[in-house]
Design goal:
By secondary structure, the chain is an alpha+beta fold. Helices cover 34% and strands 29% of the residues. The protein folds into three domains: 88 residues, Rossmann fold, CATH 3.40.50; 97 residues, D-amino Acid Aminotransferase, Chain A, domain 1 (2-Layer Sandwich); 63 residues, Dna Ligase, domain 1 (2-Layer Sandwich). It is built from nine helices and 15 strands. It is globular and about 60 Å long. Bound molecules: adenosine-5'-diphosphate and magnesium ion (MG). Magnesium ion (MG) binds next to loops.
Length: 312
């Protein structure tokens, strides 16, 4: 695993981080990194932006005045504010500001089914997954995902919340009836017992894998998420996994992505691609400066876009 070489300090770039709170670990680390490499950085809560649309275009206001146009936007849009947050991201795109993860890519990856649809369509191996609202066809659903136990996921869950296991047909029936009764759309997915509560989290930045870890679930849980008590360990990634993660991020259009891969008996399966991956656990497990790698890339990306515009 190679550390991304630090940016040779070029012109100062005004970086705008869209994030609910400046005190979040990732946001704090980004701010520190950006300042250290001589850039201007501002953290803005998307919910404090007004989007003003008028004939001929729109802009973003903070309080009562238009925002000073940033050099680049780094969106960190959490699941709780997807819609409003993405409207803000899209407004910056329309204003011609380089945005590290495009709004459309964040949208596709935020929805677990949509993400899997795009991956599968592009020839990337994903778990067998079903979306349905018909309890009458329970036996067929079970058969298609290889029988119990099966995984059930809420479409918009994150950090392991909304990912469940049904050990029997009866448990699955109860779970589906309850969730459908609550108007929740969900996925039924093939369960990989051989993963034994482990998966790989691979961080893609630009066209590189900058870090990876093996996550091991807390005893008694099958979910390896660090937020659920999982533990991260540094791994040396085989090339095949590296390529798979890069392809997964690319087909979704994400420049910064946290790719979750399960090692199944039938080969690696991409279970999910995250558009605002947290990296506290990854920095701890690997000792790498992930925030620095993402900030360096963000600056390079802004410069690339500017050069392309000048050349056009
Ligand atoms: N099909 C599966 N088989 C076995 N374990 C799974 C499966 N899908 C998810 N998991 C476990 O649950 C965790 C959370 O699932 P994931 O789809 O990544 O949702 P979240 O967005 O909540 O992280 C994964 O990191 C993995 O450890
Ligand atoms: Mg995940």
């Amino acid at each position: 695993m190679t550390k991304v070489p630090p940016q040779s300090n070029s012109d100062e770039v005004r970086i705008l981080i869209l994030s609910r709170r400046g005190t979040l670990y990732s946001t704090r680390r980004f701010t520190k990194s950006a300042l250290r490499s001589g850039h201007e950085v501002r953290v803005l809560d998307p919910l404090r932006c007004h989007i003003v649309i008028a004939p001929g275009g729109g802009t973003v206001y903070i309080k009562d005045r238009p925002i000073e146009t940033p050099g680049v936007v780094l969106p960190r849009i959490g699941a709780s504010i997807t819609e409003y947050g993405l409207a803000t991201v899209m407004q910056f795109e329309q204003m011609g500001v380089p945005v590290v993860n495009p709004s459309q890519a964040i949208l596709a990856s935020r929805d677990k089914l949509r993400g899997l649809q795009v991956l599968a369509q592009n020839g990337i191996d994903v778990p067998r997954t079903i979306m349905s609202r018909e309890v009458d066809h329970l036996d067929k659903i079970l058969e298609l995902v290889g029988g119990a136990p099966v995984i059930v996921k809420l479409l918009h869950g994150t950090q392991g919340v909304g990912v469940m296991i049904a050990h029997t047909r009866e448990a699955l029936e109860g779970l589906l009836e309850t969730l459908w009764g609550l108007e929740q759309d969900l996925l039924v997915q093939e369960y990989y017992p051989e993963a034994a509560g482990q998966d790989l989290r691979i961080l893609v930045v630009g066209s590189q894998v900058v870090a990876a870890m093996r996550r091991v679930a807390r005893p008694g849980d099958f979910r390896s998420n660090i937020h659920r008590g999982g533990e991260g360990f540094r791994v040396d990634l085989p090339d095949a996994y590296r390529d798979l993660a890069l392809r997964a991020a690319m087909v979704l259009g994400l420049r910064v992505a946290g790719v979750d891969i399960i090692e199944s008996k039938t080969g690696p399966k991409v279970v999910e691609v995250n558009s605002s991956p947290g990296f506290e656990g990854l920095e701890r497990a690997t000792g790498l400066d992930i925030a620095g790698a993402i900030i360096d890339y963000t600056v390079r990306y802004a410069e690339e876009v500017r050069e392309k515009k000048q050349a056009a």
